[in-house]
Structures are given as structure tokens and as C-alpha cells.
């Protein structure tokens, strides 16, 4: 997402930074290029034009023109204006009782998945969500929601497959919900191939009956401008209160995300970034602007990581690292945590400058599969060897390679890099430097060099994971 737009913005900023002083012509030329890349990213024409005009007005203001670092000022202007374009502030759900959320959208947009994602999230926040299957069209739809509900331990209302009256289903569901002790009801509805009159009529009836506080349009970001016009159609039909943009993990060009708020006037409330139920987050305009400008979204990253890290264990190994006691047992613990985090690719994409950096990494640097080899090697060691890797000499290395189904070269490499890492941890100066890197996210390249190195890539020193 946003890759080519980010690249083009980065180029523009680089050019502007190259000038000591900036002229009106420099700015106009640069903005012309940005306008083109916005259009290429499938941003709606008038939205792109407005955006450029706003940026231009500010950029031609005195502060920028007289500044000694005009490039930096312009980045800030872009950040502010992108934030504004994306909606300004985050808009929370209205969950006042009776909290009812109606999910609507085109076929395959991700309504059912998103219903479950939202339920999981609300549950984490301490609420008691209930899922209600109101898709009477696709035979497997009710079961799909049932399966997802079971995964997250959220009760699901499953109407009889022969039922055809949606309002009756909703009525029965409300009765069922009374005994379920739930606090938020999420209604998953049937998809529409396109705006189909009959289905829209049914949806209107359901909406009228439920009078939901929230009607969320689930829209597939990959469909670009179409997603925006779909939002307008649904809004006219039932009145939507917010948008969930799904499939932002794909190669969508970002136009839907950037035009949605401006064209429909409705806030994007959540985004889906993967098929898994945890690939779901609140939409924060400012964070997204940071991501587009490759300034990173460390806040979201920390939130995602925090959920999955065993804090106690992490603290324990950090302490052992500081004391220079870190061994292969700690290493195994950390491996388990990393695996739990899911694809590193998406996660690291939230770090500042990562979009650029990723291109320089060896192709498999972010592939967690290769950790399996390392893990297999460590698991083939005896407990004593894990504690004191220095005792692992020739024949032991051979045995470990055989036991783990790897090669002696891989075993040697792992041991060598582990040794180097321990040495580095023991030298206090380096330790401080490392902490600084981790805290300030300063030079991620060193830190990631290790990632490449461990997999047999061409990375250098640094942390091996
Ligand atoms: N990559 C990716 N896939 C997603 C995302 N959200 C949903 N999907 C996938 O999109 C497909 C359709 O999702 P559903 O939730 O069944 O969509 P729906 O809108 O309920 O579809 P219908 O009920 O048939 O209209 C599934 O394969 C999901 O796993 C997302 O954020 N990213
Ligand atoms: Mg569905």
C-alpha cells in the first residue's frame, strides 16, 4: 500500500531539500509531480487538486520561503494536510446502549471477517459482543460466522437456513440476545454484487427495524475509486456512520483511503490489513499520514506488539542480556515471541524509513520461516549446550546438524553469530549503543543487518533476530 506514492513523495522532498533557498517555481514544479502521483494512486481528481492547492498555499507562506531548511517544513505541511485529508481525528464507535452495529457492503468486501475482527477487538476492550448472522443468501455464510465466533469465543446467533424474512431474523435475534448477557450486537449482512435494488430494500427494512447506532460500510481498499462510490450509494440507501477499509495489506494504491473521507464525509473507523482476525486496527489519520510519508507508525506497532509479547519473559531476557548471561534458552524464548508476532514484514513497515530500507535487505530477510532452521538447531542441543554454547565443538556440531536436519555450515554460522552477539552485549559501550538504536529507532539498518545475516543473507553484525 502507498508504496509508489511514498516513493514519489520521498523524491520530491529530496529535490526540495537540495535547494538552500526555495523559489515559488521549485514548489510549483514539485507539487505538480505530487499531483500526478496522487492521481496515479487513484485519488479522486478534485480531492487531489484541493489537497495540492492547500499544500501550495501553506508552502508559499513566509515561514517556508525564508526558512533555512525548507524541505523539512514542507514535510511537516504534507503531514498536517494528509492527516486532515484522512479525517483529522480518530472517530470512535458509538457504543451507547442499545449498542447495535450493522455491517453492510459489497460481496466479498470482508463483512463477515470484519464482524469477527471487531467482536474480538471489543471483547479485548472488556465488552461482551454478540454476533448475528443476517446473511440468508449464501448458504455457507451462517456457518462461516459460526466458525469465526467459535474461534474467539463469542456467541453467534444462527438463524434457520430456511428463513427468508430478514426482519423476523433480527427480531428473533434480539430475543435470543436478551439471554446472552451481551453488550454489543454486531449484525453481519449479505453481500451485494453491485447495488441491487431488492437487497437494498431488505437492508433498508432491517436498518429501520434495528435503528442501529452504527452502520459500518465494509469496503475493499483494492477497488480504489469504486469503493468510494459504493460508500456513497450505501450512504444514500441506509445512511452509514463510518467505514471499515479492508485489504490494506494488498497492493492497493491507496486512492480509496485518501479519497474516502473527502468524498463521502464519513470517517474511516477501522482498517483491515490481513486475513487473520488480529489484522485489524483503529484508523488514526495522523498515524496513517506518517506511514504514507514513511515517517513510521511506531505507536501502532507498539500496540500490536504489546498484545503478543510476554512482558515478564521479555524483561527477564533483557536483564540477562544486560548481565551478559544471555544463552540459547533465552534465544528460544525470543524465537517463540517473534513467531507469535506474525509476518515481520507488515510490522516493520511501520518503522520510520523502513519502506526504503526494505528494498536494500536481502529478499528473505523478513521471512520468519528461516527462523525454523535456527530453532531446529537450538532444539537439537542438549540443555547444557544451550546454557554454555562454548562447549559445542566439532563432533557435537556434527551431531546437532544431523539432529536438526541442517548443515554443519548453518550450525557454525549460528554459533559464530551468537558468540559475536554475546561479546557485543558484554561490552558495555556497545550495549548502550544498541539500546540507543532500539529506543530511538535511529539506525535500523544495523539492527536489521543481523536479520539478513542469520538467514545466510549478506547482512552484517547486529542482533541476530
Ligand atoms: N488480505 C486480506 N484479506 C481479507 C481482509 N478482510 C477480509 N479478507 C478476505 O476476503 C475474503 C472475503 O471475506 P468475507 O469476510 O467472507 O467477505 P464478505 O463481505 O462477508 O463476503 P460475502 O458475505 O460473500 O459478501 C476472505 O477470504 C477474507 O479472508 C483483509 O483485511 N485483508
Ligand atoms: Mg459474508
UniProtKB/TrEMBL annotation:
Catalytic activity from the UniProt record: GTP + H2O = GDP + phosphate + H(+)
Enzyme Commission number(s): 3.6.5.4
Domain of life: Bacteria
Domain SRP54-type proteins GTP-binding: 267-280
Pfam families, alphabetized: SRP54, SRP54_N, SRP_SPB
Keyword line: Cytoplasm, GTP-binding, Hydrolase, Nucleotide-binding, Ribonucleoprotein, RNA-binding, Signal recognition particle
SUPFAM superfamilies for the chain: P-loop containing nucleoside triphosphate hydrolases, Signal peptide-binding domain
Entry binding sites for GTP: 105-112, 188-192, 246-249
GO BP field: SRP-dependent cotranslational protein targeting to membrane
Compartments in which it is found: Cytoplasm
GO molecular function, a single term: GTPase activity
SMART domains: AAA (SM00382), SRP54 (SM00962), SRP54_N (SM00963)
InterPro entries linked to this entry: AAA+_ATPase, P-loop_NTPase, Signal_recog_part_SRP54_M_sf, Signal_recog_particl_SRP54_hlx, Signal_recog_particle_SRP54_M, SRP, SRP54, SRP54_GTPase_dom
PROSITE patterns reported for this sequence: SRP54 (PS00300)
Any one GO CC term of the record: signal recognition particle
Domain notes: Composed of three domains: the N-terminal N domain, which is responsible for interactions with the ribosome, the central G domain, which binds GTP, and the C-terminal M domain, which binds the RNA and the signal sequence of the RNC.
Subunit comment: Part of the signal recognition particle protein translocation system, which is composed of SRP and FtsY.
UniProt function note: Involved in targeting and insertion of nascent membrane proteins into the cytoplasmic membrane. Binds to the hydrophobic signal sequence of the ribosome-nascent chain (RNC) as it emerges from the ribosomes. The SRP-RNC complex is then targeted to the cytoplasmic membrane where it interacts with the SRP receptor FtsY.
Family statement: Belongs to the GTP-binding SRP family. SRP54 subfamily.
Identification of the protein by name: Signal recognition particle protein
Lineage: Bacteria, Pseudomonadati, Verrucomicrobiota, Verrucomicrobiia, Verrucomicrobiales
Amino acid at each position: 500500500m502507498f508504496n509508489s506514492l511514498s516513493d514519489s513523495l520521498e523524491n520530491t522532498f529530496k529535490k526540495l531539500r537540495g535547494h538552500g533557498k526555495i523559489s515559488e517555481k521549485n514548489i510549483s514544479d514539485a507539487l505538480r509531480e505530487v499531483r500526478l502521483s496522487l492521481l496515479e494512486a487513484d485519488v479522486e481528481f478534485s480531492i487531489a487538486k484541493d489537497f495540492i492547492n492547500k499544500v501550495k498555499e501553506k508552502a508559499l507562506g513566509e515561514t517556508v520561503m525564508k526558512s533555512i531548511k525548507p524541505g523539512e517544513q514542507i514535510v511537516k505541511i504534507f503531514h498536517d494536510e494528509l492527516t486532515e485529508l484522512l479525517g483529522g481525528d480518530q472517530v470512535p464507535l458509538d457504543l451507547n446502549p442499545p449498542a447495535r452495529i450493522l455491517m453492510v457492503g459489497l460481496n466479498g468486501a470482508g463483512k463477515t471477517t470484519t464482524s469477527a475482527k471487531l467482536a474480538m477487538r471489543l471483547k479485548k476492550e472488556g465488552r461482551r459482543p454478540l454476533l448475528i448472522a443476517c446473511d440468508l443468501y449464501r448458504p455457507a455464510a451462517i456457518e462461516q460466522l459460526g466458525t469465526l465466533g467459535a474461534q474467539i469465543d463469542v456467541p453467534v446467533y444462527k438463524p434457520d437456513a430456511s428463513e427468508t424474512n430478514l426482519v423476523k431474523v433480527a427480531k428473533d435475534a434480539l430475543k435470543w440476545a436478551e439471554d446472552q448477557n451481551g453488550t454489543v450486537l454486531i449484525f453481519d449482512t449479505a453481500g451485494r454484487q453491485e447495488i441491487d435494488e431488492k437487497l437494498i430494500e431488505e437492508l433498508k427494512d432491517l436498518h429501520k427495524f434495528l435503528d442501529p447506532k452504527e452502520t459500518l460500510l465494509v469496503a475493499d481498499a483494492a477497488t480504489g475509486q469504486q469503493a468510494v462510490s459504493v460508500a456513497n450509494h450505501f450512504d444514500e440507501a441506509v445512511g452509514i456512520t463510518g467505514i471499515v477499509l479492508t485489504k490494506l495489506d494488498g497492493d492497493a494504491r491507496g486512492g480509496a483511503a485518501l479519497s474516502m473521507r473527502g468524498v463521502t464525509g464519513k470517517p474511516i473507523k477501522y482498517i483491515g490489513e490481513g486475513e487473520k482476525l488480529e489484522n485489524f486496527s483503529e484508523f488514526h489519520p495522523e498515524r496513517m499520514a506518517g506511514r504514507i510519508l514513511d515517517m513510521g507508525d511506531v505507536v501502532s506497532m507498539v500496540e500490536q506488539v504489546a498484545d503478543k509479547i510476554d512482558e515478564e519473559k521479555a524483561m527477564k531476557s533483557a536483564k540477562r542480556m544486560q548481565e551478559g548471561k544471555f544463552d540459547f534458552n533465552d534465544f528460544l524464548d525470543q524465537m517463540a515471541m517473534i513467531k507469535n508476532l506474525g509476518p515481520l514484514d507488515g510490522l516493520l513497515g511501520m518503522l520510520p524509513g523502513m519502506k526504503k530500507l526494505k528494498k536494500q535487505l536481502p529478499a528473505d530477510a523478513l521471512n520468519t520461516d528461516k527462523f525454523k532452521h535456527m530453532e531446529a538447531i537450538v532444539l537439537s542441543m542438549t540443555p547444557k549446550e544451550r546454557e554454555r554454547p562454548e562447549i559445542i565443538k566439532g563432533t557435537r556440531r556434527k551431531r546437532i546438524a544431523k539432529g536438526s536436519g541442517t548443515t554443519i555450515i548453518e550450525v557454525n554460522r549460528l554459533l559464530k553469530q551468537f558468540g559475536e552477539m554475546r561479546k557485543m552485549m558484554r561490552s558495555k559501550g556497545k550495549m548502550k549503543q544498541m539500546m540507543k538504536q532500539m529506543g530511538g529507532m535511529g539506525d535500523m539498518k544495523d539492527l536489521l543487518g543481523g536479520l539478513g545475516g542469520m538467514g545466510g543473507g549478506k547482512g552484517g553484525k547486529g542482533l541476530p533476530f
